[in-house]
Amino acid sequence: MRVMFERSGRLALLALVALPASVSLQAQQPQDQPVNGILVNGQPEAMTPGPEVKGTITARSGDKMKVTMADGTASTIILTPTTRIKSGSGLFGGGKNKFTAASLLNGLPVTVKTMQSSEGLVASQVTFRGGDYKTASMIRMGTAQQFEEQTAATEAQRGRMGDIDKYNIKSTSNVYFDTGKYNLSPQAKAELCQTATQADGVNNALMLVVGYTDIVGGDEYNQTLSEKRASSVINYLQQACRWKPYRMLTPTGMAKADPAADNSTPEGRAQNRRVAVNILVSKGLDGL
């Protein structure tokens, strides 16, 4: 193909090489560049809208994160190079901070918009509050930017590490569940925030959350159920009652062990379907 144009009163010829019909003049997307960040068997995959997931990041591994919701259920979500990560309202909201997948820390409450692929849920956008991110960052970093309570506890622990695994129980409160359930009742939610307020008034207080079941169901089922009950309580304490994650000891599920009442009666089984929230203070710190 040739094109003639006039310049300075003279005609000039511009030779162009004809492009094959199969080649676009526009920039081509690399063959290995995924659509929406996902390749399946080497091919880009079209995805459909998925659910919005609200909860706390409880695990990270490579390009995946586990988000546990307030009811104890968890979703594994895939992160891709196209996932948008941003801070909503709060301390850092609306600022110029740039967030990446490395910003998604364990213990961070998030809202995730997802797409559904054959590989599972894929995050299209992850949003979190600036204040929550600062909390999660401080917990992870453990630097001079520690919370005042954490700093005081750290200083008081020096020379007392031999007793750090021994605690005085200041109080224990229970929340109760229907058979086979792990969702919190309105009454349980109110009582949990009251417990958090009470514990906040105790110097150096920590919480230990333990889930239990009655004898209905098999051992494996009850173990899982007791863990889900404990997770429901912990998530609500941290997200709704604002109890600091670093003041929470590792939770546990005890299934049908240590019954609080006789399992042979309906009334006794109802008392055993519980989560115990223990307010503790290390013996090495008690009274400080």
Identify the notable features of this structure and list them briefly.
about 290 residues, alpha+beta, OB fold (Dihydrolipoamide Acetyltransferase, E2P), 60s Ribosomal Protein L30, Chain: A, 2 domains, 5-stranded mixed beta barrel, 4-stranded mixed β-sheet, 5 helices, about 25% helix
Short description:
This protein is of the alpha+beta class and about 290 residues long. It contains 5 helices and 14 strands.
Note down, in words, how this protein is organized.
The protein is α+β, with helices and mostly antiparallel strands and 288 residues long. The protein folds into 2 domains: 43-136, OB fold (Dihydrolipoamide Acetyltransferase, E2P) (Beta Barrel), CATH 2.40.50.140; 165-282, 60s Ribosomal Protein L30, Chain: A (2-Layer Sandwich), CATH 3.30.1330.60. The chain has helices at residues 130-141, 148-157, 186-200, 219-239, 266-272, and strands spanning 2-7, 10-15, 39-40, 43-44, 48-61, 64-68, 74-78, 84-87, 109-117, 120-128, 167-176, 206-211, 252-253, 274-282. It has 5 helices and 14 strands. Strand 5 (48-61) and strand 6 form a beta hairpin. Helix content is 23%, strand content 31%. The chain has a 5-stranded mixed β-barrel with strand order 5-6-7-10-9. The chain is globular.
Topology:
Elements: E1 2-7, E2 10-15, E3 39-40, E4 43-44, E5 48-61, E6 64-68, E7 74-78, E8 84-87, E9 109-117, E10 120-128, H1 130-141, H2 148-157, E11 167-176, H3 186-200, E12 206-211, H4 219-239, E13 252-253, H5 266-272, E14 274-282
